[in-house]
Model the fold of this input.
Amino acid sequence: MSTVAWATPPEELPSPVVDNHCHLDFPYRGAVERTAAQILDEAATVGVTRAVQIGCDIDSARWTAEAIQADGRLVGGVALHPNEAPIHAAGEHPTGLDYHEALAEISRLARLPRMRVIGETGLDYHHTGPEGRDAQVRSFRDHIALAKELGLVLQIHDRDAHADVLDVLEKDGAPALTVFHCFSGDEAMARVCVDRGYYLSFAGNVTFKNAGALREALAVTPLERVLVETDAPFLTPHPQRGRVNSPSQVATTMRAIAEALGVDLEKACDAISRTSEALYGPW
Ligand SMILES: [Zn+2]
Done:
């Protein structure tokens, strides 16, 4: 069996930044395994010095709770992913936990030290069909309430569900700090999010050749509302698409962000670092 290669580290950034959303525990089929420490060591060589590790199912959330204690470069986030909640709700989850038991475990883990995020939560109409929508909406609302209760940042997963995600946030009242992880809307939606005070986190897909609409959305977003992430191991930026993504690739996405915003790269890195600290606190 041929081995899938990891993306190689890009040129070093002029100033350090944080990867706002990654999954260091997800196995990537066909790739040589790397530990979180190895991945973060490599990222540090190009100026990506810290990361937010997101655990979005029960096993991954438990892994995250341990990883953020073990490595000072990480803080964590936990949630039931919008594609996980309906499986729990249907009583079909391999852990055997029903929805309420699973949410209680997320709520317990979210209170541990160094947990700074509730996420990713939201709506995904791409992978889950209409039969799962009620469970997704209920889970999204429960996670919004949990983020408010604990004073944590909400990270949103929105796949083909822009209008409904905005609607739920408006009806329930978004947490004070709300981030659209892997923002995928157009310019009009970016304007709505900015008006409402949300933050927009851009991933490697902003570098794709066919992502003109996403770059237009980015261009109307004030620098102080922009974040950068990998969503590793997914969404490897151009020109290394097809390889395994890791936090070092933030360096490539940062260059695309600075270019779309028409600002100096070092200035963009500094601004995003400040915003990341303002959201998640120091670490
Ligand atoms: Zn993710």
In short: Residues 181 and 271 are 18 Å apart (CA to CA). Strands lie at 17-22, 48-55, 74-78, 115-124, 153-159, 178-180, 199-202, 226-228. The mean pLDDT is 97. The chain is about 40% helix and 15% strand.
